[in-house]
Amino acid sequence: NTILPLLILFLSACVTAKECAQLNIPEIIKEKRLVILGELHGTKEAPAFAGTLVCNLAKGNKKIAFAIEMPASTQAQLQSAFLQNQKISASNEFDALSFWNSSFQDGKRSQAYKDLLMTLWDLRATNESIKLIAIDVDETPNNTGNAREQYMASRLSSFLQEFPDYVVVALVGNLHARKLQGTPWNKAYIPMAFFLRDINFITFDIGYTAGSAWNCNKTACMERPVSRLKPTGVVKLPTIKLSEIDANFDGEYDLNE
After folding, report:
1. How far is CA 102 from the centre of its chain?
2. Helix H or strand E segment including 112
3. Which of residues 76 and 225 earns the better pLDDT score?
């Protein structure tokens, strides 16, 4: 389940802040308190890109927190794993999360997400101030829609109020990352980012031209093509582009072109 497999070779270079794969980050991002990355769940590249972005922003001992779309009820276990001194202990604790074993195997329950958690753990070797925040609700039939969006927003805003010297990078589904109320299928829907409109944030959608992703619909969870185009196999470095084409986003991060 990948958009462009060879990109992983590039993105895997992000092990510590000193070894970051270089990203050309627009200056406006560095002025924000919150950077939201909207993703298409079920790719390898989006979580890897998020780790690379945190890696770059963390240079110079900048205080960074990473917000992940996992239930807040996992926060204590995530924190325990994140603070382990030994890599094998951290990996084992992350692996033990019940989150991975849900009957709903959407694209967040992936090796790519586990790899992202370990990338963040590795970054603590050079920047101990890095924090990890689980912002989602527990998965029950009633925890959906606007109430879920508002809860996720409240987790972010509460952290930013408690830690005013931190910048947060959040990786969430691109529905949550939309700035405006309403969607093409539900005008009353209020995305997470809309609830955060009083915070100095910037939000990006995922960009790609070819590949596949593991996602779920009403019938099944499986790998599906996300484009009629086939990957060329040519490695191109990810880019961050500012754009006003879609009013819901400030631009996109392109994983291939």
Report:
1. 20
2. helix 111-123
3. 76
Q: Say what the pTM is.
A: 0.88
User: Residue 109's pLDDT is what?
Assistant: 87
Write the DSSP assignment of 180-211 as a string of letters: SS-BTTBTT---HHHHTTTS-EEEEEEE-SS-
Backbone Cα Rg of the chain: 17
56 membership: H or E segment, kind and range: helix 45-57
In the sheet where 251-254 sits, what is the strand order?
Answer: 131-136, 64-71, 167-173, 34-39, 201-207, 251-254, 239-242
Nearest to 22 by CA among 66, 52, 64: 52
Q: Which of 179, 166, 192, 224 is nearest to 43 (CA)?
A: 224
Pair of tokens at residue 198: 């009083």
Q: What whole-number distance in Å separates Cα of residue 72 and Cα of residue 83?
A: 17
Q: Quick one: how far is CA 241 from the chain centroid?
A: 17
